[in-house]
Design goal:
With 124 residues, the chain is an alpha+beta fold. 52% of the residues lie in helices and 12% in strands. The protein has a three-stranded antiparallel beta sheet with strand order 1-2-3, with no helix packed on it. It starts with 28 loop residues before the first helix and ends with a helix. It holds the Pfam family Chibby.
Length: 124
């Protein structure tokens, strides 16, 4: 049983809306570049008041005032210096081995020369 006397609910008909064209053929080149181009800025995410930026394959907290970037940069530089130091240690070990080998060969040749001199003196 209807409360307000009307038997039917009949809303007014709305006028149809004009839909904007979704085709990208009508955009000029600058609009196409903005919409579909590779020119995008840094990726930023804001979660719970903390903002992070995606740079060089890593998420960096932007709220630290650039400290996160410096730490990551220093860690990379530290790793490179450790690798360079290990390479230099290896080269030094190789050079010391070469020096020891050359010294041993020289010592053997000097001993052989001394023996040949003694042998030559005895034959006289």
């Amino acid at each position: 049983m209807p409360l307000f006397g009307g038997n039917k609910f009949s809303p007014k008909k709305t006028t149809p809306r004009k839909t904007p064209s979704l085709s990208n053929l009508h955009l000029d080149s600058t609009q196409q570049q903005e919409e579909f181009g590779l020119d995008f800025g840094p990726i930023k995410v804001n979660l719970g008041g903390s903002e992070a930026v995606f740079e060089d394959g890593q998420w960096i907290s932007d709220s630290s005032g650039g400290g996160g970037r410096d730490i990551i940069k220093m860690k990379k530089q530290n790793q490179q210096l450790i690798e360079e130091n290990n390479l230099l240690k290896l080269k030094m070990d190789i050079l010391l081995d070469m020096l020891a080998e050359a010294t041993a060969e020289t010592h053997l040749k000097e001993t052989e020369i001394d023996q040949l001199k003694d042998l030559a003196r005895r034959k006289r």
